[in-house]
């Protein structure tokens, strides 16, 4: 693909062959993201007084559930890509070619986390609070895989950082010149997610100060849902995506993102209530000790 001045070129390859094996970069970056999320979550659990190895045990349940759920959500919202005369239905299973929707992954992943948390005897919300910043980091790394697959971009743009897309790609919008540049949504979301992870950690530090964070209040999970929901709703508003599932003429992904943000707000309000209770209890304990 020729590189245009002042633009972001898309990779010409999305995999490499290692002997009889084909290694897809999309899968590699998803795996890297999962490993980073598990490591950070394990560290945060240890800092909160837990063993930390619960993160690995729960991930063994959450990751397969998340992949299956993410794929199902993608297929349901893009039926035209998989169900047509002469279609190879086995392609529904080809997750390495791209097409794992984060919303489906989160919903099904929650089921896996619930099962894993019960087996490790760790409170469900404690794990989710510990996971929140690592989840955003994992999603950011996964977006690099979307870049290699040329599957996450927005409307045409003349900005210097416009993204080149192979005009021979089936997803290239019909009727546009071959040298059209597009908003690099993979990059926007990557930066947004990393900023969100840093924001969660900074807010935790500001609130808890000299005390270690108290996972289980829903604070970090609420911040994650609010941050990601707002960002994703914004990106969906100008994303070029053949999503066929609409509700009242609005893409289901945009509505789901707004719903996630609303849930995040409720979790934050509840976390504030719980933290006030803990503060009052600590004050009462200090008064009792002094008397």
Domain module tally: 1
Percentage of β-strand residues: 5-15%
Give the strand tally: 6
Task: List the total number of helices.
Answer: 7
The helix-and-strand class reads mainly alpha
**DSSP helix fraction:** 55-70%
What is the CA–CA distance across the termini? 77 Å
- The helix/strand series, from N terminus to C terminus, equals EEHHHHEEHHEEH
List low-pLDDT spans: none
Q: Give the biggest sheet.
A: 2 strands, antiparallel
| Shape estimate | globular
Mean pLDDT: 88
Read across the widest sheet, the strand sequence of neighbours is 1-2
Radius of gyration (CA) equals 21 Å
Function: Catalyzes the transfer of the diacylglyceryl group from phosphatidylglycerol to the sulfhydryl group of the N-terminal cysteine of a prolipoprotein, the first step in the formation of mature lipoproteins.
Pfam family, one: LGT
GO biological process, one term: lipoprotein biosynthetic process
Family: Belongs to the Lgt family.
Pick out its properties.
globular, 7 helices, two-stranded antiparallel sheet, 291 residues, mainly alpha
What does this structure look like?
Catalyzes the transfer of the diacylglyceryl group from phosphatidylglycerol to the sulfhydryl group of the N-terminal cysteine of a prolipoprotein, the first step in the formation of mature lipoproteins. The chain crosses the membrane at residues 23-42, 54-73, 93-115, 122-142, 185-203, 215-235, 247-269. The protein is mainly alpha-helical and 291 residues long. The chain has one domain (17-154, 180-290). The protein has helices at residues 25-47, 54-77, 102-120, 124-149, 185-208, 219-236, 252-290; strands spanning 15-18, 21-24, 163-164, 181-182, 246-247, 250-251. α2 (54-77) runs antiparallel to α3 (102-120). The longest helix has 39 residues, at 252-290.
